Amino acid sequence: MFLNPRTHVSLFLCIVIIACCACHTSQGEEMRQLETVSSWFYYLDFEPDETIMAQLAQSTYDMIVMEPIFTDRENRDFPIAELVSRFHAAPHPKLVLAYIDIGQAENWRTYWQSDWSIGDPEWIVATDPDGWEGNFPVAYWHEEWHDIWLGDDGYLQAILEAGFDGIYLDWVEAYSDEHVMTMAEQEHVDPREEMIWLIEDMAAFCRAQNPQFIVVGQNAAELAEYEAYLDVVDAIAQEQTWFDGAADNDPPGDCPLPRTDEDIETDAYEQSLSEACLQMYKDFPESTLHVSSEEYIRYLTRAREKGTIIFTIDYALDPQHVAWVYATSRALGFVPFVSERALSLYREPVE
Predict the structure, then answer these.
(1) What is the pLDDT of residues 307-335, one digit of tens each?
(2) In a domain, 42, yes or no
(3) pLDDT at 32
(4) Cβ(231)–Cβ(198) under 8 Å?
């Protein structure tokens, strides 16, 4: 079952009405919270290393984006609220955002059923185009997908109860996946519009309970052209603006994107890549190595000019690359973070 626009409006109207005033009056407060963030940390390990957790608690990072962990089938009883409270009570208190993938189903999550596969249920449409094993793009406008997040026992309610300050949304760009687009055409829906609607519903649900709840959308920089999107998110986070790595962390980073639109898929660009980066470039023709930094920056700069906070995430280990990204991103008015592709190691804040 999927939601058409009329069903969408009627189903969530009550939530939106309840949250409406709170959302509009609290947007400034959310922005003020994020405006104070000058350094942040991104960590996606399901079994947090205590040494890293202690380092984070003692660090001067202003914000942490992390897995909620309890959504992992093997860690459903993890005491995430205790960890969130620990970061809130740190000597340098931190905002803590829960990472969630809203455009793909992941077969290690507690919602995944053993008999699921592509096409069953019908809203699971394909495998990940960039080689992320166990990830499946979805037709995210279907009611069953909404229920995973927005149901009474859904993930968002659990995230709120754990004390997270916000959500960090991955795979917002699902609307651009060719299989998602095909299904959207078959079902006569606009995939970009449906994605913005989903995010609006998620934000309204959370802000009805916590008016200062933060919503950050990752990637899909071109949505900066849509005022409805900028109205609902507090920030945009863009991965691999300048450097990327492979899904299997081999290489872990230091693969430069084409610097300009004119550099895309040129012989000179291919010759500039290391052997590992060139293999990634050839294996995944839809990957970010076929997009330019110039394109991302064009959209991100427009969003920043409209007042949207911009975070960047790049994957690099070479000290020169790391230093260059921090300096370049900050010069553009963005807030950078640089790590390896697996996002499982501690990195000291870069002043």
Answers:
(1) 999 999 999 999 999 999 999 999 999 99
(2) yes
(3) 66
(4) no
d(CA 83, CA 46): 13
- Residue 98, helix vs strand vs coil: strand
143-187 pLDDT, tens digit each: 999 999 999 999 999 999 999 999 999 999 999 999 999 999 999
Residue 36 belongs to a domain: yes
Pair 233, 306: CB distance under 8 Å: no
The answer to whether residue 128 is domain-embedded is: yes
pTM of the model: 0.92
The parent domain of residue 24 ranges over 5-339
pLDDT band at 13 (very low <50, low <70, confident <90, very high): very low
Percent helix, percent strand, percent coil in the chain, to nearest 5? 45, 15, 40
CA distance 194 to 140: 8
Distances (CA, A) of 130 to 79, 134, 235, 283, 310: 32, 11, 25, 9, 24
Query: Using CA of residue 237, residue 64, residue 78, residue 204, what is the dihedral sign?
Result: negative
Give the residues across from 314 on adjacent strands. 338
| β-strand partners of 166 | 97, 214
User: DSSP alpha helices (H): ranges in 101-251?
Assistant: 143-150, 155-161, 178-186, 191-207, 227-232
User: Three-state SS string across 171-206, please?
Assistant: CHHHHHCHHHHHHHHHCCCCHHHHHHHHHHHHHHHH
Q: What is the pLDDT of residue 7?
A: 47
347 found inside a domain: no
Domains held by the chain: number:
1
Say which CATH number the domain at 182 has: 3.20.20.70
Q: Which two tokens stand for residue 290?
A: 């076929």
CA-nearest of 99, 92, 89 to 48 is 99
